[in-house]
Amino acid sequence: xxxxxxLRVATITFMIVALGAVAAPAQADQRSAPALAEVAADxxxxxxxxxxxxxxxxLLEDVRSGSxxxxxxxxxxxAKLGFQGNNPPKRYRDESLTEQEHAYLxxxxxxxxxxxxxxxxxxxxxxxxxxxxxxPPAEPEPSTTALVPGFPQCxxxxxxxxxxxxxxxxxxxxxxxWYNVDGDRPVDTDDGPVPYWTYGIEGxxxxxxxxxxxxxxxxxxxxxxxxxxxxxxxxxxxxxxxxSRGTETDAFTxxxxxxxxxxxxxxxxxxxxxxxxxxxxxxxHQYAYMKTDVINKVGNFVPLQSWMEATAEWATHQSxxxxxxxxxxxxxxxxxxxxxxxxxxxxxxxxxxxxxFARGRQYGGxxxxxxxxxxxxxxxxRKSWENIAASDDGDPGIQLAxxxxxxxxxxxxxxxxxxxASYQLCGEAKGGHPGDPWGGVWHMTxxxxxxxxxxxxxxxxxxxxxxxxxxxxxxxxxxxxxxxxTVSGDVTLHPGGSAYLDxxxxxxxxxxxWRSWIVALKxxxxxxxxxVTISTMHWKDFPTRAYEDDSVTPLxxxxxxxxxxxxGGHVRQITLAFTHHNPAQVDHRxxxxxxxxxxxxxxxxxxxxxxxxxxxxxxxxxxxxxEGCGPSTGEGVTSLGLRYVPTGAEALAHPDPAHQxxxxxxxxxxTWPVGAGAYSTWAHAGRGISGLPGSGTGxxxxxxxxxxxxxxxxxxxxxxxTGDLIxxxxxVPSARPELYQVKVTVRTAGEAADQPHVTYRRVMNWNVEPxxxxxxxxxxxxxxxxxxxxxxxxASPDPAAGRTKLVNxxxxxxxxxxxxxxxxxxxxxxxxxxxxxxxxxxxxxxxAAGTSVxxxxxxxxxxxxxxxxxxxxxxGSGSPNVFxxxxxxxx
Length: 891
Prior knowledge:
Helix 3 (70-81) packs antiparallel against helix 4 (99-113), helix 6 (208-226) packs across helix 9 and helix 9 packs across helix 13. Helices cover 22% and strands 27% of the residues.
């Protein structure tokens, strides 16, 4: 193919469609052509000649239907090919045929010719022998052509009736290169100075263009031999520059070896001399793995054509990747990849989809061949061709599946891995994070990937964009979730194809106020042959995964819930990769699958709230410490527990929660009058939640969780034989900006005489910045209902677990500095209300101030007599920040 965007002509375009009855071997079925045509009509896809020239289409349709006998078809076919003087009947005439149509017709004529009686066949062959294209004369008579001055190679005469006429021949060890320097379609005749030896030899009478092309042809042949590929035969390969068939920049390799002739490559006189020769030489090798009886099987033409072009571009990549010669132009070096956009811009099409003559998606399929090479090794592509050669069917889809299985894998597994690898192809090349873990997910590493990504970025289908604005990716649908409502849609998947759905969490209001959600993901297959899987990729920040291993779920029904949020530690985006499989093959003949999907933010899960001075990360269970949207100023903690906005310092969250408990939580113990027993329940940022002892979370239900930018309310129900326990935590700004009020309400069924004793525990491990884990602690215990206070912030939130201390308990005055926290056991005063039953109300407070004096003033202003103040190991005044907890036995 020529460069600068000119498409290379598809090289074996006789594979456009299956021929049906005429193309099938005679011994395979002795029924009449009409009978076989009727059978072919029931196969999918139906042979389709609509893309062919009208006369050629009529010729093929007539022989298939049986209205034209096989001998007449051969005669008319050779007439259309120019091998005998008479034109075919008017119905079969065309003003011109493309090279692909010529090659296709030549192959079919040869196949049908073999089925004719021996005497008839020989008569036809003898009649057209003089016109058949075969090897050029070994030594044309010099006297027939005058020498072109200055070009010593131009004293030859090669005349091929319907292809062209040449005067010049350049020979190399393995190629005979024919070209012209004048007349119709001459090559560039420049023979002047060159920057590198690979560009030609100055002043030797041979065009530098031809010498460059000759060098690339020989290099390609050498490279492919080293990769283990065979050739149809050892004769020198004929290369014809400036054929009259096709454009000046096209290239085409007809299946001459399948017709018993020498290997031949047709080159446009302006075809690029670097990459295109490599592509076409690989086609010569591919023909060594083909048989006409396999090629002509119903349905093989399309996928075989596609796999030929995909692997020829892959082979070009192999050859140019390690090219040591200086001066190799970049535009030509990466020419093999220019159609990657056509492949990843339409990823839902089958792997072996063919766009038609000289069109791009099959060329972009090199990316799948490249994927297979990286998954296994370079031999995998050759093995696929060897399996095609050895099989009775030759369908590349079937043989790709067989090849992968021989190498110890399965085509379903590989197509799933390919879908994921394609999506994150540009992760490191375009703004990703090389130091971040990939979560054990395999990814491609070819050094040319940045160039591929540049190509993807230049096309609107695959360019970078939300939700990952720096990363080009395959074509996809994008859903930006809102805080309410559901979004739905459909995807259509052809066998072996993939489709992508990017889902983004609702955006944060600011880095201090945000909400995370439980997002419901559903999908259902509405139409399917084979089966469909969904790969769920959870992202923190592309290409960093949120989880080590993401799930692969087979359909027909998919129903998952995922916690998503807008902050760095949340699952910020989800990509659903739908992949359509046939377990036995990458089959182009099956109909597509249709999948309906639905996503929506169904339940609020956590929230970041602030009153402008204090910031809290609140969970649906009423605990603190959640993923935040910005780092703290001390240790850069991204989790949010309790933070002082003026300094940005964190007081509870730890920078490494995997190795240090994110300890903040609450618990209740309900003790009934004598004989009724006692039970406890608790929730903890680091330890989870628990209902009845030994019951796990099964009897705890989140009744509701709501939040605004400044408030949050959690309502839990704990099941118990004596009656459900309802625990509410309502976070609201207090009358003082330094303190957040948490209204705690406990409800349960019962009569006035049954009032239980309820102990409420709150535990917190202080990590006060800027000297986290080196705190000074002061406590007061004067409020009625204060049952126990200590410095053990690592204690269980369950009051039934017992009361413990690290060093100090009760009234503590500037205890420290050491890593410590606070434990408070507090009484919830219970009353009886005929309408609500047994109900208890109290309040706790979380807050921060700039100094110890300011903290004490805020506590005193609200009448808080039981409290804790934790300060960093900085100054005696507590500056730059002091953090607080408080309790009052009422709202």
